[in-house]
Amino acid sequence: MNRSRGSVLLACVLASVSGRAAAYDWQWPIELEQSDATLHRISLDADLYSFLRDPALGDLEVCDAHGALVPSVLVQASADSSSSRHWEHVVAFPLPDAAEPDPGALQALITRSVADEQLRVEVRGAGPSAEPAAQQWLMDLGDAHPSADQVRIDLDAGGVESWSAKLSVEQSADLQAWRSAGRDIQLYRVTHEGHRLEALSAELPGATSRYLRVRMDQASGPATLSFDVRRSQRTTVPGETHEITLSAARKEQGGWTYELPGRLRVEAWSLDWGDQTWLADATLSSRATPESAWQQRDRGDSYRLRIADAWRSPSWSSFPAARQPQWQVVLQPAPAVPPRLKLRLTRDYLDFVASGTPPFRLVAGSDSQRRVDAPRRVRALAGTQQGAARLGARQPAADDVREVVRVPPKDYSRWLLWGALVIGALLVLGMVRQVLREQRPG
Length: 442
Hints:
single chain, mainly beta, 6-stranded antiparallel beta sheet, 4 helices, elongated, disordered N terminus
């Protein structure tokens, strides 16, 4: 009987050890580019995220040759305090007038400067007998609109001595509701007795929505308009981004679902329509699991149109960064063939201190083990020499790594509470016994 009990106890111990041995599933050998450096940085590839189970990326650590864990910390791109303002040219699309245009009226042409990639909208007259007509343009600020603080309209009237026009500007966030951003903006050039007076530029401090619609009325002659937006640009550290293109995995709930390999940090998106010609209202959403509800991240117009003998499509659209593996695009109208989803990702890094015995290994994939970031020790080495590190081929985690990984400390608060209660009960019983002895006669 004793031998049987001993066998059962040994089996339980072995089962416990084998369960703990599966704490981490995979490992990658680390190659140090500068072996004499104390602090090293690993750039995490997109494929690595598919082996992580913790939403906070906690099941990712570095150990040395003996399996001892070394101090490490996950580093993400963070905004720096420095910022700068600069002007950028904006794409402008000519819009048709409400009425059928007269063949002899003004015509709008888009030209591009090869030197500075400047987009311009040129307004030309068909001849001396052409009557002035209203011209309209649509500007999509795209990725610039969250940080835009001013819009500028410049006019080039060439060698014309006298020129005048009146502009009106409207702005919108969704191309549905429009509000005024400037009315009766007068641009002119006047020459009197050899002296020239001109105002050929207008600035709109309040025009910060994504879409702007500019209308020019009462133009007295041909001219060229160019549109610029001034934005505040903040530098980020480390600031390295990369792109990934996804094909639709399936269609559900009125939209197309796309899947990332893991919880990568997404900050911008766009759609790749291939050879299709399309214009649609696009809504981007994401979720953590198939059971979770979709959370809207961004919305805007997605298009691929041929305008003035050139294909046009919007630039990247930014939104607050999110880490979720499943993404959905809902399009109105819905296409028969879904576009490909392009996502811009912020790269993650893992900094670690080479305080153990090389070679080092990166271990990942655990349901229970979580990394304890050591930012203080790592930041203390920020001024020292930092070396890059590369990951080798993925391998099943070695037994020594699995058995020596950090085990979370046990919680003894419940045992301490029970101990205090037992001691208190014994004290009360002792006092009661003492009272009973004193009251006993004789």
